[in-house]
Amino acid sequence: MSRLAEAPSYQPADSLYLWWLADPAAPRLVGTLTLVKSLRGISLRYAPAWLAQGFALSEDLPLRDIEFLPERDGIVGAVDDARPDRWGERVIRYLDKPPRLSLLEYLFFAGDERFGALGVSTSDRAYQPRWHGPLPSLGDVDELHELVRRVMNGEPVPADQKRLLAPGTLGGARPKALLEIDGRQWVLKFGEGDPFDAPLVEHASMTLAARAGIAVAATRAVPLAQGHAVAVQRFDRDGGRRLHALSAHVALRAAGEKEMGYPELALLLRRRGVVEGNLYLEQMRELFRRMVFNILIDNTDDHEKNHALLVDTAGHYRLAPAFDVLPAAQALGYQQMRVGLQANDSTLDNALSEARLFGLKRDQAVAEVRRVIAAVAGWQAHFAACGVGAGDIELLATAIDRPHLRGQRDGF
Q1: What's the domain count of the chain?
Q2: Are 232 and 264 members of one domain?
Q3: Residues 252-302: pLDDT tens digits?
Q4: In terms of residue numbers, what domain contains 303?
Q5: Angle at 124 between CA 123 and CA 129, to 5 degrees
């Protein structure tokens, strides 16, 4: 535990400390996090050393010697992505049982392996996080699954097993755990309560997206006694280093955008993306493919927290690999993110309506749509080859191949 000084027994206080962990062996103090009780939120004030030799964590946190105040019930800027997701909050409430449950506690108890390169400590002199111990491995999957079942059912969890459930990842309410496979960190996601084998379907969907020219996080289907889990390789880790990352929700909000949409995210890539080799242009076009793919496989859970950007210290953005891509199978007919002139409507015409904002001329956008259609048209065979059962494919077909979507594919 050479780089970590485990925090002493936690006592509620109104301030904690934010650290920069790009090189975990050399943590750097970023500043002070304070519970603003009148707003029930968390503020940030940069430390003098960070003001002198640091960088703005997000556009709404410029290097200024002021206290950045939150919106009500919120956390300022990039720090918002350091909080646990809904499953992580549930784990903290059930296993850690903090003496107080403000946003400050959720930030702290998210632990050392939270999303991105930020850390939260009880000390401003040494990095002292909530540490859960070594990550479990593939051999612990059945035990992890049982622990998840216990948490979901409100059953006791043995004290010596609590360390296996680290709550600090980016995602949603789906049960998950962190584990190590071949020296790399992966997020292991379970499918409790889903109407189909969602983890296996996610693996199939992600690999299908790759066929459509989309950069995706690596996935592995992990067999369980019943059904599967899916392991998703973390894109915010690179060997021993941690990468600064922002959800699209935080990045768009920091940019002052009122609308959470694909076109807005494309324009943010144009403005803040990597210029060398015109990478930002290719990433804008890939974002267009992601939008079209989500429409055609009925992934209507494509909200702005299910998209992420990797950020370098110069403030340049790159699309993180796609994650949380799978059919919602709800046939809603609209996306969570704005698509085009017809707002969130799940149509290819709507996707094409603002193609220019993705750096695409009409004929180029049509070619991109056809590229995605060519991949999605073979979804049933691909899913079957990935092991998805016939019953699940039949269920998913009621959404993916319903006239609203199938007609758009066939008629394009």
Answers
A1: 3
A2: no
A3: 999 999 999 999 999 999 999 999 999 999 999 999 999 999 999 999 999
A4: 238-410
A5: 40
